[in-house]
Amino acid sequence: MDNRIDVERVRDETPGCRDLVHLNNAGCSLPPRGVVDTMTDYLRNEASLGGYEVQRDRSEQIAATYTSLASLIGARPSEIALADNATRAWDMVFYGMRFMPGDRILTCQAEYGSNAIAYLQQAKRFGVETTAIGNDPSGQIDLAQLERELGDGRVKLVSMTHIPTQGGLINPAAAVGALAESAGVPFLLDACQSVGQLNLDVRELRCDVLTGTGRKYLRGPRGTGFLYVREDAMDAFEPAVLDNGSAVWTSPTAYEMNPDARRYETWEKNYAAVVGLGAAVDYALALGMDAIETRVLALGDLLRRTLADIEGVRVHDLGQSRCGIVSFTVEGVAPDDVRCALADNGVNVSVSKSTSSQWDLPSRGLTSVVRASVHYYNTESEIEYVGSLVDGLR
Fold this sequence. Notes:
This protein is an alpha/beta fold. It has helices at about 5-10, 35-50, 50-55, 60-75, 85-95, 115-125, 145-150, 175-185, 200-205, 270-285, 290-310, 335-345, 380-390, and strands at about 20, 80-85, 105-110, 130-135, 155-160, 185-190, 210-215, 225-230, 245-250, 255, 315, 325-330, 345-350, 350-355, 370-375. It folds into 2 domains: about 5-30 and about 290-390, Aspartate Aminotransferase, domain 1; about 35-285, Type I PLP-dependent aspartate aminotransferase-like (Major domain) (Aspartate Aminotransferase, domain 2, 3-Layer(aba) Sandwich), CATH 3.40.640.10. It contains 13 helices and 15 strands. Keywords: Aminotransferase, Pyridoxal phosphate, Transferase. Pfam families: Aminotran_5 (PF00266).
């Protein structure tokens, strides 16, 4: 187990760790005290001085959030835009694409429900065809099939979820990006579950666009998200909507979009949440993303092995590489009942349902799974405790 993170310190800086075992980090992590303090301080300042005035006075603090996010993923601040959540960040790019009848989108079998719904809507509107690339024997996206499909000149977008909501799979995003780049097809990467959990570099991933959220593994506030748009791909997309935050009204009959990624933003923001997001990113950067990834993956593997050793428990994670999300079922006990039983004993987990993964779970004969997702502030003793609770459910 990686020892580079002072677990006792980060637990002390995370008030929620005193009262529960939080294994719902793929839903919403527990924020560090510093994130909460940063937000409440900003809100108190607004209450005393006025929202516009504080925004002006704290412009450097707000700008630092862009710089921190850029540092987190190996981008430039000008390539970062903020959004209310990761789905809206994703929507701003996807719904700005001009599709024609017969155009094709390639995605993965483990794709997230919100994204899949968007593909289906564009199919109804414009006759777009979506192909969910099958899995290879390990359960990750089949790169050989993807390469064959990219030979079709009708393919206009490769869009993939890096880590699915319903399990521990880490799709090989860098290999997908390389194939898409070679074929000259834009690559949109949904990194909602991987940002803050894995050490990401957009140059290595070769994605044109990456979207992420604040509330999950970054341990930031809810209602925050962001997107990265590669500088030399900026004009390959057009935002789905524009307002006077994303463009300038230059004459009675003309406007100009912002030259950088902020063309994807809207004017109004929750600035207390923005600076809270910046504080969360800075916290992760101070710990080091290599150290975070190492510990999260090790704890995920420990939980996976602990559960797999219990009679009647089946772990359902796929892929060559697996993360801190662990999906499982208990024979004879419905996933919702497992969640409730664990909650009664101070353990937070979630349930992933087929409504979020219609191309994945039903194909494996599953309607829902228990989802337990670890973070670096979890401990080996907590995992042992959860294993004992699950063992007692049979």
